[in-house]
Design brief:
The complex is a heterodimer of chains A (115) and B (111). By secondary structure, chain A is mainly β. Chain A has strands spanning 4-7, 10-13, 19-25, 31-38, 42-51, 54-57, 65-70, 73-78, 87-94, 105-106, 110-114. The relative contact order of chain B is 0.35. The chains are: A mainly beta (115), B mainly beta (111).
């Protein structure tokens, strides 16, 4: 079984619709992250959470919100989707790590298309 | 503002050749520099990483070279194989407790 799972894997939606992407992990990690990947831009951090009560904005949080329902679950919502939110979205997890090396473990990604 | 600049954007190498990907950073607070490898349809996965107190780290055919004074680091893939064809991301981690990624390099190794 995969350690970090994302649902759905693919989603096509229309402008203005509310979308939720879900992430679950069985690694027992405290820290969870949401990134989006666009060609030529690499991975950009949307939100991150170091524990259930700790939510932080990343580089590109505008238009997104998150919920950390439990240690193992971290959801990303697009309240009103727009076409430039079309991208590949990744969830990742990490432990506190030794000497702060912060190795992150990524899920398989969700490909979102907003028409 | 891109804090980690990566080049080239794409790279084509013959089997057995050396692949070299370069990254440069601005923030001197970064203290951990990993490389991630991503195959099509998969999430990125940690390949190799280095701290700035050493100038080189080697794991099998993969080597990171680090130049602290120039604020640059590079990934060298020796004896490149078709199975190495993937997208490679450099990254940097520091006091902000976040990974900042480069823009990625798509490597194609021709058989």
């Amino acid at each position: 079984d995969a350690d970090v799972t994302q649902t759905p894997r693919n989603r096509i939606t229309k402008t203005g619709k509310r979308i939720m992407l879900e992430c679950s992990q069985t690694k027992g990690h405290d820290r969870m992250y949401w990134y989006r990947q666009d060609p030529g831009l690499g991975l950009r951090l949307i939100y991150y959470s170091f524990d259930v009560k700790d939510i932080n904005k990343g580089e590109i949080s505008d238009g997104y919100s998150v919920s950390r329902q439990a240690q193992a679950k971290f959801s990303l919502s697009l309240e009103s989707a727009i076409p430039n939110q079309t991208a590949l979205y990744f969830c990742a997890t990490s432990d506190r790590g030794k000497r702060g090396n912060n190795e992150q473990f990524f899920g398989p990604g969700t490909r979102l298309t907003v028409l | 503002q891109q804090q980690v600049k990566q080049s080239p954007q794409s790279l084509i190498v013959q089997k057995g050749g050396i692949s070299i990907i370069n990254c440069a950073y601005e923030n001197t607070a970064f203290d951990y520099f990993p490389w991630y490898q991503q195959f099509p349809g998969k999430g990125p996965a940690l390949l190799i990483a280095i701290r700035p107190d050493v100038s080189e780290k080697k794991e099998g055919r993969f080597t990171i070279s680090f130049n602290k004074s120039a604020k640059q680091f590079s990934l060298h893939i020796m004896d490149s194989q078709p199975g190495d064809s993937a997208t490679y991301f450099c990254a940097a981690y520091g006091s902000a407790r976040q990974l900042t990624f480069g823009s990625g390099t798509q490597l194609t190794v021709l058989p």
